[in-house]
Structures are given as C-alpha cells and as structure tokens.
C-alpha cells in the first residue's frame, strides 16, 4: 500500500526554521521557530517516535549559523543575492524556468546533507 507523502512544512521549505523527522520513511515536519530549537533536542516525532533534533545536529546547526553570520560570508551574500535574483527573474521571463538553489538538511547524524531545490 502506497500512501501519499505529505509536503514539508512551510518553514522547512522556506529554510526559515521548522523541524523534520530524521526517519527517512516518516514525512513529519513542523513549523518550530529556530529560537525554539534548543528546547527540542531529542524531542520525539509524534508520528514515529524518532528524534526530531539530535544533539549532534543541534551542535552542527549552531556552527552553520555561526558561519552564516560570518562577516565575509555576509558580504558575499549581499553581492550575490541581487545578481541571482536578477538572473532568476530574467530566466523566468525568458524561459519560464526558475533557478535551483542549494539548501542543507540535518538528518540526525550531525552531518549536513546538501539538497538542490527549486522554488515552487
Ligand atoms: Zn517521524
């Protein structure tokens, strides 16, 4: 029996927060804000009971956040974001396609999983 996979929560899709179950066979995700992450370490998934956020992933998340706030990366983002937005708009008008973007996922192992996504 094949059941329909639920879509990811809006926060997870937007990369603005949210938690996703680490179990690959479980499609649970929620809209937990980033500020609440530290209270969710080892919180069990309401669907399958597996951890939604392991300590290893939380530690890694803090490191990634630190990196994201690094002044050099901030400057690079400041320069590249408008360029990619203009290019994205251009491609959308010209060929009706949108640029894929890179996002990262945590899967409970304390390692980052890069994912290429497309805006819906
Ligand atoms: Zn689950």
Could you give the topology of this structure?
Elements: H1 10-14, H2 55-68, H3 71-95, E1 100-106, E2 112-118
Antiparallel strand pairs: 1-2
Bound molecules: zinc ion (ZN).
Zinc ion (ZN) binds next to loops.
**Quick one: overall form?**
globular
Total number of β-strand segments?
Answer: 2
Count of separate DSSP helical elements: 3
- Tell me the number of structural domains: 2
Task: Summarize the main sheet.
Answer: 2 strands, antiparallel
Spell out which ligands are present: zinc ion
What is the oligomeric state here? single chain
Task: Going across the biggest sheet, name each strand in turn.
Answer: 1-2
Derived structural class: alpha+beta
**Unreliable stretches covering 5 or more consecutive residues:** none
Protein model, in words:
10% of the residues are buried. The protein has helices at 10-14, 55-68, 71-95, and strands spanning 100-106, 112-118. A hairpin with a 5-residue loop joins strand 1 and strand 2 (112-118). The protein is an alpha+beta fold. It folds into two domains: 1-53, no CATH class; 54-120, no CATH class. It has a two-stranded antiparallel ribbon with strand order 1-2. The protein contains three helices and two strands; from the N terminus they run αααββ. It is globular and about 45 Å long. The structure holds zinc ion. Zinc ion binds next to loops.
């Amino acid at each position: 029996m094949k059941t329909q996979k639920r879509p990811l929560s809006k926060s997870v899709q937007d990369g603005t927060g949210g938690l996703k179950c680490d179990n690959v066979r479980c499609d649970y995700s929620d809209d937990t804000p980033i500020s609440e992450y530290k209270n969710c370490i080892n919180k069990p998934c309401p669907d399958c009971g597996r951890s939604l956020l392991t300590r290893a992933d939380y530690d890694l998340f803090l490191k990634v956040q630190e990196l994201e706030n690094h002044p050099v990366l901030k400057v690079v983002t400041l320069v590249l974001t408008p360029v990619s937005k203009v290019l994205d708009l251009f491609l959308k008008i010209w060929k009706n396609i949108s640029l894929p973007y890179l996002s990262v996922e945590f899967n409970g192992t304390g390692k980052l999983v890069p994912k290429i996504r497309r805006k819906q």
